[in-house]
Structures are given as C-alpha cells and as structure tokens.
Amino acid sequence: MAAAQNDSDSTAAAGTYFDAEITARDDNDIGIRPDEDNDNLFGVHDCLSNVAINIHVTLLGEAVNSDNQLYLYVGEDCDDASAIADCRQIVDLNPTSETASFQDVTLSAIFEDPDCSANDTKTARLWLALLQTEDAIDAETDFIEESLIIKLDTAPPSTQVSTTGGTPGDGSFTVEWDEVEDADVEGFAAVVAESDADCAAGVLAAGGTLDAAAFDDVETSYAGGDITRLHIDGLENGVTYEVAVAALDEAGNPSALSNVQCVSPVETMGFGDGLATDGQYCFIATAVFGSYDHPTVKVLRGFRDGFLKKMPGGHALIDAYYQRGPALAGLAVSSDARRETVAAGLSLFAGLSKLLVHLGPGSVAAGLLLSLLLGLGAGIVVPAPRRNR
Fold it and tell me: Could you say which of 109, 127, 153 is where a domain stops?
C-alpha cells in the first residue's frame, strides 16, 4: 500500500480535502516487481500488461459534507480554474460516504495509451476533485488538489550480465555471474526455458528480451540486492534447460539477456531420498558411480563409519560434508570429463582409506604423533651446519 505523494508546489494545501492511497495493483506478465512498497512506480512490463490500480479516497475537512461529484483528473495545474479544461478526466463516481474507491484505473487511462517501447520516464499528476459542474471550478463550493504522482519508467538498464557458469543440483540449478557495478541495477531475474539435449534449440539468446509472451514454458526467478548467483528450484532431473540472467532496475525493467548456460539438473542423494538403510549418504561417490551399492561407495562408507566417526572432530567433518555434499555432487557430474576425473580420485582414495581403517584412528594418530616427535627430536639433536667465517 503506497501513501499519497503530494506535490509541495500545489496551490492547494496538501491533505486539506483528500487523503488518497493505492490499495491494490495488478501483476505484470513476468510477475516481477523489485520494490513491492513502491506502488507508484511502474515499468515496461506493467505498461505492456496495462496493469490496473485501485485508489481509495477519504474526504477530509470541508469536503466531507459536500454533495458534489467526485472526479479523478490527470494534468499539470488542474486546481487552476482557468486550466482545468486542459486536464483530462479519467473516471468519476458519486461518493455516498466519507470514503470512496476508484477501481481498476489502468495505466493506459492514466498515460493515455503510452508507447511502452519509448525507453523514457513519464510522470502523471492525479488530481481529486469534488465539483458541482464537470471541468469547471467554483472557488466557493468545489474542492480539488493533487493527490498522487504516478511514474512510468520504460528505460531498461544498459548493463548486460555475463554469466560464468553454475552448479546443477537435484531438481535445481545455481547460476553464477560476474559482479555488476551499475547504480541503476536493483536486482536480477533468471530466465529458464526447456531445451533439447545440447541446447541447439536456441530458445533463449544472448542480447534477447525478457518477454514471457515470446517463449513457451519460461520461468523467471527474482532476487534483489548486490548478488552474483541465483538458485532456481522446481526443475526436472535429466531435462536440459537454457538459463540466462537479466539485470533489473527499480521499476523491474530487464536488461538484455546474458549469455546462455546449458544445464541439466541431476539426482543426488539427500537425507529424505530413502535410498540408504542407515540414513547416511555418500553424496559425491553415489552420484559419480551411479549407485549407493557400488563397491567404491561401500569402501568410502566403511571409511566414514570405521575411521572418521571414531577420530576426534570426525563427526564435525561428516556434518559439514552432509551440508555441502548435494551441491558438490551436482558439480562432480556436470560433465563426463569431470565425472571421470572425480571417479579416478575417489578410487585412489578408497585404496588409501582401506589402510587407514585397518590401522584405526588410534594407530594413525600415534603414527602422526611419533613422526612429529621424531622430527622435533631430529631438529634438536642434529646440529645446524656451521657457516664459514
């Protein structure tokens, strides 16, 4: 809900006759409004969708007992008796009490069919008037004053986002981009479109326009603030998606789309998946080897239970792994080459882990302590080489 914005230059004292506020406004076609508290500011997608607002009016002071008709005008100096004829009436109603509401006042009515592609900013001054006669002011019986200022900003940010990649997850994807240094940018929107296996369909294109009407099955996810990544949920594992990012200004105007990332969410083991009988998971190994019962995965589970859990600080390491494991698992299988590299590394570590489990945490700790003591002893006993003088 936005409080009335009164112009201090108005010839009428602000708040003398009316109190007006926007109590509701339609959503635009992409469903993104960065500043939910600023109902007086509209962007290009508000313009394209011709969103409507409801204006609630409370009559104040002398206007309360007036029997006049209530009008809503747009113009510059509508409180001037000689200039009101140059103002445009939007709507009128007959107030039956001290309060009244103008319902579904559209942007096209306020700005008179604006050009949504104009890349500029327009300001409309809305005036409330209780008049005996339309388009005429009687200084003794009529009441009029500026009540709201509405702004229409259709100029998008000039900055284009450059994505650097991201991390696939279970039914999700986190897209990342270079930091944007632009005072006009207030947030970002990720655009997701289902594609073919290698994204050859080209549903999204770098430099394209964020226009929900132009794409089939396009989803947008918004986040405000100075960020460099955005997490997208609700995707389907094994399906390939095109992902691009647009910068948004205060009015929700999107920049040209970034370069496009081609992503495929992957199933990873999580606490609720029910794929393990012990309630514990080897996220990365299971994702890489494709099965919770793979021999290498079993060896690594044995290392966890037979070594890590028994060593000081082991449980903290396991907890930290369970927090980060799903995201790391998605990264590990984001390409065939990366999957093979991680699999080779895990296989080598599995061989070492067998030896560690056989020795046990106590023997390993004792061996490390003995090595440390021997090293310190050698440093004390063996004299340092003497320098020639």
Answer: 153
Q: How many domains is the chain partitioned into structurally?
A: 3
Answer yes or no: is pLDDT of 379 > 60.
no
Q: Rounded to a whole number, what is the largest CA-CA distance in the chain?
A: 113
Q: Which residues contact 4 (CB under 8 A, 6 or more apart)?
A: 19, 20, 21, 147, 148
pLDDT at 2 over 50: no
Ordered DSSP codes for 105-125: EEHHHHHTS--TTS-SEEEEE
Contact of 169 with 334, CB cutoff 8 Å: no
Does this model's pTM top 0.70? My answer is no
pLDDT digits (tens, 9 = 90+) for 73-84: 999 989 888 888
CB 59 within 8 A of CB 98: yes
CATH number, residue 114: 2.60.40
Are 245 and 307 found together in one domain? Answer: no
The residue among 123, 153, 183 that closes a domain is 153
Do 123 and 39 reside in the same domain of the chain? yes
Q: State the Rg of the chain over Cα.
A: 33
Q: Which of residues 223 and 383 earns the better pLDDT score?
A: 223
Same domain, 149 and 9: yes
With 60 as the cut, is the pLDDT of residue 273 above it?
no
Tokens 């009008």 sit on residue: 71
Question: Among candidates 130, 263, 113, 250, which has minimal Cα distance to 195?
Answer: 263
